[in-house]
UniProtKB/TrEMBL annotation:
GO terms for biological process: carbohydrate metabolic process. The active site is at residue 343. This is beta-N-acetylhexosaminidase. It comes from the Eukaryota.
């Protein structure tokens, strides 16, 4: 990854006063470390540091401690800004020296750690810091990995302090998560995401010790005018199933838009990337509701008058759903999958409960996997099996988490009042742009902070103790109710970035349990440093400017030119003058990059497969000056220096077929190519710099 030291300086200036010693004795990090007892001195990190994995158990497991150590080495170079670090090695325990300090990683299966509910966990670790040796010990490779992440964040804090040398306070510590499930869900059914960006999200989430990525991989837009008008309009409503069947599969027609689906090799690679960063991918294929992608393929399976619901009494419905899972179950490495199962017709409760239980038995027999479902209210004389985890998200009568736990169910907290976001816009301002920090740090009854045991901000009887048996943890959710045109893929990241960090803190440490938990002020001070330092990905699209804040400058006229930069994230300013040729005034693009293109026609941005025209027509055979200014919330143009009339790129979102909502768009700068695809004319005085 390349970094913008200009932007980093801005962040560091803002947080310098906040980087004080935390109650643990360490600089604040996210999530906070459970215990640390400081001693004299500090471990000094240098480029010659040796990363040594104890050979006794270092190659056991998949991923092994040695595999994690190899990932850690790459990440450490990024965070420390070192050009090179010696490769990790398998050796017996050793002691460092002043010139060659040692990071020692050991697996000791006799070590024991527990969650708040007393259940054992393999994710805990101990660490000991001396003058020349930093030792991480864990019962399993995953625990060692989280210890390595802790060290990476300690290095990031030291770099941010601006002292020059990288030092970690000496002492001993122990750490383990409060809850088993610490994750996030992304609605990829109603918005397309390629596996490259999904992989980057996994790596970023891992830096905050989140361990699950719930991937909502099938769904449809909800528009009652299309769905329930009685005609065939439902056949045209956007619906998607993202796993790509082989072309010769009987399921091939389930995915009509192959360019918006994941081939097996791409998905397996994404899943492996997540695994080597300690994150399990939990795939969701949502049935029997939210199933328009299936009924558009096989209309005979739809419930009469409700084409987005499956008719569970139709003989071929359940066998078809099972055949879909049979095709894709071999792709999935997780021990659990989600079948969705929310918002079905409440009058068909018996059929619904029978279906959920049948699918649970099927998954166990077919692949040895357990299932999860969204909490829902389907009145029935039957009972959902307690082998099924309930993912609570709302409070219909039958889905009260305290009652579910008392009945022996395992529960994941995804309560929408705390944990829901929606891409770009929230109908009625129900959900915030990113998780509300005031609510997360002081939104529980009595003014305490939120944690996975908090389901209600107003009714304490709906909350549990942190150590409640069966309470597995939390998954926050980002929905994309308004479809592909509402956001770019990167705009979804902008909403998730800080939210993932706060969920990492609250699901690892909780609220009111440990003395070392972060305060809101400590979190807000540490987050910009950790966001900027997060290694292994570049979702911020940071770059190293050529000089000062200038990424590049090309004053001479060009028809086409390649640059060293694929994409530049906001905030940025892109200035240029363009003269289209009258021979082909609307041909080609002005700029193109990894995440976007800017077409000549109507100054149209293209991102995530969607077109967003500005509506300005460039005159032919004369130069027009354009300044594009972008932040993570908007992008606008100043034409011919007229600052009084900026032109904003916008999108128009259909909100439940009730009204249209206009919203601003944010685009990464398309920085890789100037002119192309037959562009006729010239572009001059190009200047791309950081800052809007």
């Amino acid at each position: 990854m390349t970094w913008s030291f200009v932007r980093l300086h801005v962040w560091l200036a803002w947080v310098a006063c906040a980087l004080v010693v935390h109650a643990s004795g360490l600089a604040p990090q996210i999530p906070s470390v459970a215990t640390f007892n400081s001693s004299q001195g500090a471990f000094m990190l240098v480029p010659d540091v040796q990363i040594v994995v104890d050979g006794a158990h270092g190659l056991e497991g998949s991923p092994s401690a040695f595999t994690f150590a190899q990932t850690f080495r790459e990440d450490l170079m990024s965070v420390a800004h070192y050009a090179s670090i010696p490769c990790a090695s398998i050796l017996p325990a050793g002691v460092g020296t002043p010139s060659i300090p040692v990071i020692h990683i050991a697996i000791d299966p006799t070590l024991q750690y527990t969650l708040y509910n007393g259940q054992p966990t393999l994710e805990g670790y101990d660490f000991e810091v001396t003058l020349y040796t930093y030792t991480i010990k864990a019962a399993a490779p995953i625990g060692a990995w989280w210890g390595m992440v802790t060290l990476l964040q300690q290095v990031a804090s030291s770099v941010a302090s601006g002292v020059g040398s990288i030092s970690i306070p000496a002492g001993t510590g122990t750490d383990s998560p409060g809850w088993e499930v610490r994750g996030f869900m992304l609605d990829a059914g109603r918005h397309w995401f390629d596996t490259g960006l999904l992989s980057e999200l996994c790596i970023y989430a891992s830096f905050f010790k989140l361990n699950e990525f719930h991937l909502h991989a099938s769904d449809n837009l909800w528009n009652p005018d299309y769905l329930y008008s009685g005609g065939d309009a439902w056949k045209e409503l956007y619906a998607a199933f993202r796993f790509q069947p082989p072309l010769d599969s009987s399921l091939a027609r389930l995915v009509p838009r192959l360019n918006e689906s994941w081939p097996e090799n791409d998905f397996l690679s994404f899943q492996e990337t997540c695994a080597t960063h300690g994150v399990a991918v939990i795939p969701e294929i949502d049935t029997p509701g939210h199933s328009l992608a299936i009924t558009q393929w096989k209309p005979e399976l739809m419930l009469d008058g409700q084409p987005d619901l499956l008719n569970l009494s139709y003989p071929d419905t359940i066998p078809t759903v099972k055949s879909i899972w049979q095709e894709f179950l071999p792709w999935f490495s997780s021990s659990e999958v989600s079948i969705g199962a929310d918002e079905y017709d409440a009058s068909l409760g018996d059929a619904y409960v029978s279906y959920v239980n049948e699918m649970s038995a099927f998954m166990q027999a077919e692949a040895g996997k357990k299932i999860r479902i969204w909490g829902t209210n389907e009145p029935s004389n039957q009972t959902i099996s307690t082998n099924i985890t309930i993912q609570h998200w709302d409070f219909p009568d039958a889905d009260i988490p305290v009652r579910l736990l008392e009945a022996g169910y395992r529960v994941i907290n995804s309560e929408q009042a705390f944990l829901y976001l929606d891409g770009k816009y929230s109908d009625g301002n129900v959900y915030p742009y990113s998780l509300d920090l005031d609510l997360m740090f002081a939104g529980a009854p009595g003014g305490g902070g939120w944690a996975p045991n908090i389901f209600s901000a107003t009714d304490p009887s709906n909350n549990t103790a942190p150590d409640a048996p069966g309470l597995r943890g939390t998954i926050m959710a980002l929905w994309n109710d308004w479809g592909n045109n509402a956001t770019t893929m990167l705009e979804d990241y902008y909403q998730l970035a800080q939210s993932l960090a706060v969920v990492g803190e609250k699901t690892w440490a909780g609220s009111g349990v440990r003395a070392t938990e972060l305060t809101q002020a400590e979190f807000e001070g540490a987050y910009p440093v950790m966001n900027a330092a997060a290694p292994g990905q570049n979702l911020n699209r940071m770059v190293q400017p050529e000089y000062g804040d200038v990424v590049y400058a090309y004053p001479a006229p060009y028809n086409s030119l390649l640059t060293p930069y694929a994409s530049v994230g906001p905030p940025y300013t892109l200035k240029f003058s363009v003269q289209p040729s009258s021979a082909a005034p609307d041909t080609g693009f002005l700029f193109a990059g990894e995440d976007s293109k800017l077409h000549v026609t109507n100054l149209t941005f293209e991102a995530t497969g969607q077109l967003f025209p500005l509506g300005y027509v460039l005159p032919a055979d004369t130069y027009t000056s354009v300044e594009i200014h972008a932040t993570t919330r908007y992008t606008y143009a100043i034409i011919n220096g007229d600052e009084s009339s900026p032109w904003y790129w916008t999108t128009d979102m259909n909100i439940w077929a009730e009204y249209m909502e206009l919203a601003n768009m944010s685009f990464a700068a398309p920085a890789q190519q100037i002119g192309g695809e037959g562009f006729a004319g010239s572009i001059k005085d190009v200047l791309l710099k950081l800052g809007s």
